[in-house]
Batch of 3 targets.
Target 1
Amino acid sequence: MINITKTQPAPPCLEIEKKKKSGNYRCGTVLPRLKADFHNKCYICENAGITNINVEHFRPHQDDIDLKFDWNNLFYACGHCNNTKSNKYQNLLDCTNLSQQITDLIQFDIKPFPYEMPKISAIQKGSIAVDETVSLLQAVYNGTTQLKQIESANLRQKLIVEIAAFGELLRQYYFKFGLSDKEKERISSEIRRKLHPAAAFTAFKVWIIKNNKQFKTDFPIQKY
């Protein structure tokens, strides 16, 4: 999970649909704007280019008409994460609230070699929102039922491939000798691109950088 900036104002169609007996909150420009704002990736697991797209209510609306059509309550998620979250998590960190920098509050670790399960933990205990977000992320990456465990395993495979590729870029930048300045700048640009919120599984890559003093100096983490 990484912070994103949500565009304003709300699509005008939401107020129109809200007044209808069976209004549709996926109206007008809602979907393309959510796709753009959330970089076409699930806001919970950060899997990019998802095919099972859900317009997710960050706070369960439970037939509250205002929450159901509130632009600030509509998020972009995959079916796996939306079904895992359901109505069970109601005090999560809001990734669109830039005063809550997710990767300053939660640590994301994964070691692709040897293969390990993702480790997601609170930086500081005691925050209900942080603890609940950690609990959801653990459920997303580990699975809560037999079916969800299969989905989670598929998700972790994509995560490991992405992190291994990021690690290879870092290896080339720091340990591949004989690189020209142009080649080194190309690799540096690719590393920075992989750290942008639009990239897949950015939070895990941010923490690879945060855990290494030299990486932090050469690739300072940007706040978005």
Target 2
Amino acid sequence: MISVAKEWNPKQALLRKLLAKPEKFDEAIRLCLRMHSLVHNSRVSGCSYPTYEEKLWDGLNDEMFKAALANKRTTIAWNLWHITRIEDVAANMLIADDIQILDNEWLCRLNATIRDTGNAMTAEAIAEFSNNLVMKEMRNYRIAVGKKTRKTIGHLEVNDLKTKVKSSQLERVIDEGGLLDIPGSRWLADFWGRKTLAGILLMPITRHQIVHLNAAFKIKEKCLEKG
């Protein structure tokens, strides 16, 4: 499990400060990419150091991946889907104003029964969704998303950081199924609509991922305790 307060929050606070200073743009992007590498498989960045996600995958089997524990509403499968779908949407549709990675071919490979971020799902729906999701392909989808995100971040220029997310981009996210047009899902569009691209780098590209990886670690620990 990750000590967010000790290991992550100082990095997040520094990134926030650097992104607010145009003269620190290059340093901010380097730190953002370093933080992004930590929440993904090393194949995404080519880094030689162990990442948080690799620690999660270490020893993780299909049963643990899909486990719906009595005292937990979510699963490891759902947490990984949730952060990856949000990264796919945020990086590609909001920052790059491009197409998302997820398409019908990926949905088939993943055996995914939804295409949105899963924000509005009930515990029962999460359990059913997780039971169908293909673990190997979830890992592959996450790698594909992470690699494209790094390219997007690397192409940013200093003036881009103050750009606000456009309402047309948010409507496209809903139209293309990234979010559902219901209150339990659409609130996220309202949240993103108040952000600049610098804000999107802070949340969800970096901090959001560590929060849900931490939740996944807790579920994994519970599964190991149960044997």
Target 3
Amino acid sequence: MKKTGFNGFVQMVILLLSPLCSFGQLDTEMDSNGYFVKMNNTLNLRLDLDNDVRSFEFNATNDTYSILPNTNGRIAIAYNYRFLTFKIGFSPKFLASGDSQEKGKTSVFRLTLDMFVKDFYQTFDYDQTKGYYIDGTEGSFPGLNPSEGEFILLPDMRTFSISGITRYRFNENYSFKALVNQTEIQTKSAGSFVPELRYGFWQIKQPSGPEDIESFYIIANGGYHYTFVINKNWYSNLGLSTGFGIEFNKIDSRLGELEATQRTTSAVFDVNTAIGLGYNSRRFHAGTALIGSAITRNDESVIKFDNVRGYFKIFVGYRFDPPKALVSAMDWVESKNPFAKK
């Protein structure tokens, strides 16, 4: 990894934001029950690092190997203000494995929008990854020697997904914002039962490969989330949710000049877990989390998602005083909110 590239990236972010930011005393507001502090009058900039990039398995009769991206992780820049979070993610060159000549190049792009309306928490996500290589091919491709840097490249293989999650908290003393976009600070330990609805569309396309896959899914989950306030600045969080749903799949298979389309409907069982540790002060916030998911499905495809997976996330952020134009714009938007307290 070249330090000059990373330092230049950080300097660029600071330079772009510096005209907007000043460093006066932050205005805060305690909620009615004293369980969290509202930081509505701050503009939060956060830098995230995670390794949430999907991989796959090819499982056919007497033939199994892995389909992997050539990147070690992804960086995202998040802007948080009041009820809204906007995040853009990508995989820069310094996170690549450094062997793109052998394993090819992987490009990652992701957009995430989080919105908070009263007790609802809504997420929309757009995710695209392009460029994979095949590993674990011993015996599958005679004459190919991965130990000497010989891999089959899939530069045109693309994964694409559009998804959403709608959540509702039953306990108003539990703060989604403190955990997700840091526009609140949880000051007393609290938790809540959180039902959620997950839905989305994902696609795997490989023009020269054996299959293209499309799937639409909808899953209803129920779970519990809790934030432990350790002291004035430190906290830990736990979350667990389980549920059932359904997937509608389309598989386009190719064998030479022969093509066939198969449509299947599968019931799915879903489990999601999260554990994290964080620091939250008036200006500075940081943390880390381990997130896991497992899903069971009747998968008729030979190219399969990794159904049991886990990934880490590390973030660091700072709260700035927002520009007046942003304050005025958000005041106007919130004045049109039909759920706002009169």
